[in-house]
């Protein structure tokens, strides 16, 4: 199986996670981050399951985004197999809920929209888009509940839901139906990749921030702590105990810098400052030289990724 992970480097979740470690987020964004983190955990769990349980051929898109007549299409997982196209909306809900019309109500009284409503809407837009791409393969949409601590009462059996206890038999069925991917499906994948590229800029409601206001310094991406002990090779986080190569950690800081400041030039000084002046300048220059190419514009020198 081939997996395409789309838009991951620019998603709101990465932005908010990065910012949360380096500034105080307002309440709304903090809550959003908690929600996204939970969703992200659910999606990663489903991806892992897919990759370990599915044994046949197929193409899996993670985080597919496109639009049809200005209506956004966002699909957590899109799977193209020889027979069918599967859409999966993944939910990491926890607790007990009762389905009532197009709402899920918790036993404590809170309620939210039944995710199958959004799924139906997305399914409609996506079917139209496929028709325009001259594809007639049937689409099967599902809402997947990945959390074993989720219970839903009174869901009609025909609803497009997959509960944790049904996932293994779902993948068994996919394995039985799997077949060789044909040229027409490969072409469809190329077209879908094209469509998703058009949708590279999606709405991002982010807090405003400036370089000056963010806390600088090397950070542990596992737990968000700044308490690191570095030697010439490795970095040890004294909060969570994770060790990684210091060079890899610096490269991850460059990714973080470029994600948060896509329009800023990566210069020696900006990186030195971003890393909290904790790493020797010579080491940073050397690392930049081996992974980036040097560009000059007037008096400023800056670095671009070698593959840009
Ligand atoms: Zn840590």
Protein topology:
Blueprint: E1 2-5, H1 12-22, H2 27-53, E2 59-68, E3 71-80, E4 85-91, E5 95-100, E6 103-106, E7 111-113, H3 115-132, E8 139-145, E9 150-153, E10 161-162, H4 167-177, H5 183-198, E11 228-230, E12 234-237, E13 243-245, H6 246-260, H7 268-274, H8 281-291, E14 292-297, E15 300-305
Parallel strand pairs: 1-2, 4-8, 5-9, 8-10
Antiparallel strand pairs: 2-3, 3-4, 5-6, 6-7, 11-12, 12-13, 14-15
Helix pairs in contact: 1-2
The structure holds zinc ion.
Zinc ion binds at residues 220, 222-223, 225, 237, 239-240, 242.
Domain NERD: 38-152
Protein name: NERD domain-containing protein
Pfam family, one: NERD
Overview of this protein structure:
With 308 residues, the protein is of the alpha/beta class. It has two domains: 2-198, no CATH class; 211-305, Arc Repressor Mutant, subunit A (Orthogonal Bundle), CATH 1.10.10. 38% of the residues lie in helices and 26% in strands. β11 and β12 form a beta hairpin. The structure holds zinc ion (ZN). The site of zinc ion (ZN) has 8 residues, from loops.
Provide keyphrases for this structure:
308 residues, 26% strand, NERD domain-containing protein, alpha/beta, 2 domains, NERD, Arc Repressor Mutant, subunit A, binds zinc ion, 38% helix, six-stranded mixed sheet, four-stranded mixed sheet
Radius of gyration: 22 Å
Outline the low-pLDDT stretches: none
Bound molecules: zinc ion
Cα(first) to Cα(last) distance is 28 Å
The average pLDDT score comes to 89
- Strand adjacency order, main sheet: 1-2-3-4-8-10
Succession of helices and strands: EHHEEEEEEHEEEHHEEEHHHEE
The outline comes out as globular
Domain NERD: 38-152
Pfam families: NERD
Protein name: NERD domain-containing protein
């Amino acid at each position: 199986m081939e997996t395409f992970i789309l838009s991951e480097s620019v998603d709101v979740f990465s932005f908010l996670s990065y910012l949360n470690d380096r500034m105080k987020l307002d309440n709304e964004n903090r809550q959003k981050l908690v929600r996204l983190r939970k969703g992200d955990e659910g999606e990663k769990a489903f991806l892992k399951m897919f990759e370990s349980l599915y044994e046949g051929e197929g193409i899996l898109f993670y985080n597919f985004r496109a639009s049809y007549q200005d209506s956004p299409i966002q699909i957590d997982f899109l799977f193209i197999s020889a027979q069918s196209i599967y859409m999966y909306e993944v939910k990491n809900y926890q607790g007990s809920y009762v389905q009532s019309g197009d709402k899920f109500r918790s036993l404590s009284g809170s309620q939210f929209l039944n995710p199958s409503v959004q799924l139906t809407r997305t399914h409609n837009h996506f079917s139209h888009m496929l028709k325009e791409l001259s594809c007639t393969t049937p689409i099967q949409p599902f809402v997947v509940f990945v959390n074993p601590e989720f219970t839903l009462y009174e869901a009609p059996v025909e609803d497009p839901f997959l509960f944790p206890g049904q996932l293994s038999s779902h993948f068994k069925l996919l394995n039985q139906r799997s077949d060789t991917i044909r040229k027409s499906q490969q072409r469809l994948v190329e077209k879908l990749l094209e469509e998703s590229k058009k949708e590279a800029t999606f709405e991002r409601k982010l807090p405003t921030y400036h370089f000056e206001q963010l806390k600088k310094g090397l950070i542990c991406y596992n737990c968000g702590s700044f308490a690191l002990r570095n030697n010439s090779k490795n970095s040890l986080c004294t909060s969570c105990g994770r060790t990684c190569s210091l060079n890899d950690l610096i490269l991850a800081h460059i990714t973080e810098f470029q994600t948060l400041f896509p329009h800023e030039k990566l210069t020696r000084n900006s990186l030195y400052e971003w890393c909290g002046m904790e790493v020797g300048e010579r080491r940073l220059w050397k690392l930049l030289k081996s992974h980036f190419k040097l560009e000059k514009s007037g008096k400023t020198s800056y670095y671009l990724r070698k593959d840009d």
